[in-house]
Amino acid sequence: MRKFIQEILYDARFIKDHELQPAWYKVLKVFLLLGLMVGFTIIFGWRKTAIFFLCFFSLSLIVHLVYRHKTRKFTQTWLDFIIEDVGGISKPKRIGIYYYLAVIINGIISFLVCRFVSG
C-alpha cells in the first residue's frame, strides 16, 4: 500500500509541476470542469452527470496510465510526449495531438454512455 501511495504522490507532483501546459491553463481547466459539471447537471440531472464524470475520469485515468507506462514515469519520449535535454536535465517539452484527441474521444464516449446507459 505504501508503494501505491508513493506512486500517486509521484504523479500528483508531476501533474502539479509540469510545464506541458501554461499555469493559467491548468487553473482554467478546473473552472472549465466545474462549469461543465454545473451545466451538465442543469441540463441532464445529477445521475447522468455522475455517470458522465465517472466514465470520463476512468477513461482519462487509463490514458494517464498508458502515457505513464510508455514514457517510463514521464522520463522518455513516446508518441506526442516529448522529452528534451536542457543543460543536462531531461524535461518534458510538450504533449500533442494524440493526447488531446484521446481526451476528446473520452468525452464523446462518456457522453454516449451517460445518454444511453442511464436511460
Any descriptors?
two-stranded antiparallel sheet, 119 residues, 4 helices, elongated, mainly alpha
List the helices and strands and how they pair.
Blueprint: H1 2-17, H2 23-44, H3 46-70, E1 82-86, E2 89-94, H4 97-117
Antiparallel strand pairs: 1-2
3D structure, described in words:
With 119 residues, the chain is mainly alpha-helical. The chain has one domain. 71% of the residues lie in helices and 9% in strands. The chain has 4 helices and 2 strands; from the N terminus they run αααββα. Helix 2 packs antiparallel against helix 3 and helix 3 packs antiparallel against helix 4. The longest helix is centred in the middle third of the chain and has 25 residues. It is elongated and about 55 Å long.
- The helix content is over 70%
Strand and helix order: HHHEEH
In which order are the strands of the major sheet placed?
A: 1-2
Q: How far apart are the first and last residues' alpha carbons, in Å?
A: 38 Å
Tally of DSSP β-strands = 2
Largest sheet, strands/sense/barrel: 2 strands, antiparallel
Low-confidence stretches: none
Précis, in short:
By secondary structure, the chain is mostly helical. It has one domain (2-117). Helix content is 71%, strand content 9%.
